[in-house]
Specification:
CATH topology: TIM Barrel
Number of strands: 11
Structural class: alpha/beta
Shape: globular
Bound molecules: iron/sulfur cluster
CATH superfamily: Aldolase class I
Radius of gyration: 18 Å
Largest sheet: 8 strands, mixed
Number of domains: 1
Strand content: 15-25%
Strand order of the largest sheet: 2-3-6-7-8-9-10-11
Helix content: 25-40%
Distance between the termini: 32 Å
Amino acid sequence: MICLEVRLVRCSTASAPSRLPGLDRAVNPYRGCAHSCAYCYAQDVTRFAIGDAWGSIVEVKVNIVQMLKKELERGKDGVYGVGTVTDPYQPIEAKHGLTRGCLSMLKRYGAQASVLTKSSLVTRDIDLFTGWSGIEVGLSIACVDERVSRAVEPDAPPPKARFEALSAMVDADVDVYLMAAPIIPGISDSRHLLESLIESAADAGVRRVMWDSWNPKPIAASRLRDCLEDHGLVLDGIEAKVGPQTQATLRESCKERDIQLISAF
Ligand code: SF4
């Protein structure tokens, strides 16, 4: 585990336009992410903390809830993506509650929101999600292999805990989906791993799976290479494109279980 430096900062805006499919605005209560995933390309996109170990610094936007309230008072604007370049339920959320605060505000103003996380902490907010027709929640699980997960997502909850979180939200009638991403060539794209992923999702009661392949941007690619090498895992092919076989396997596995499969991009 990396030693975490927490910086309390003030933001001048709470949301920004989003170019991600299906999202109109992005809300990120934190900058940086203590889940420290080796494949994360948020640093390539945000240019945050270059030179520091990824996951070692997290900025906490202490006034984001008040700023979001002001923005919503002026009018809401389509679908708000909560956690587009950071995990909104990374461990520090348990202390600061900014994600919960932003979601409460969005719900209060009748906005639509889409949350994506790989943390079981999201189940804390089931009470917020129930009865809110404009919310969807995605749980991201790339690979059911615990050894791979420990290596490449060292500070995120293990896949088993995430499947339990999915199951808890299904039981609570939350609109929830599995984000099967990022699928990394040579790491998580074998037939066996893909089928196990979909089987576990079905066991958790999931009816919708979105998938995406890994985007080997320069900083992320270099970090992942180092990480895999350190753990004695395969190195070849990680920067290749995920082949059509991956999509075919996912499609077949989902069809067998009557699960809807969507491509993220
Ligand atoms: S949880 Fe998401 S944002 Fe956080 S380090 Fe992992 S991939 Fe990046």
